[in-house]
Amino acid sequence: MHQMRRPVLARALDIEERRLPLEEAVARVSAALAEAIRDLLGRMPWPAPADPDLMAADILAIVKGMVDAAGERGEREAEPLQGRVGRAVFGYLGLGAQRA
Considering its fold, how many domains does the chain have in total? Predict the structure, then answer.
């Protein structure tokens, strides 16, 4: 995670990214990530979610929000963040007892 290694640079890139016409590229990457998440959700041993698109979007928002906030705080260790993000996502999925 580049946010952990160089948080000041990562923040500057986030700011500049918003100024560039990257909507199409960001949309393509986000769509590919959402598709991968929906695929994973479809493989889980529980009933399919009522709205897999919404669930995938929520998971992406959880991850992005937590990673961005950690970068803004200047966190430099990826492993603790990965654990927190995993617990948040598993909690969202109702799998809070699972280990991230």
Answer: 1
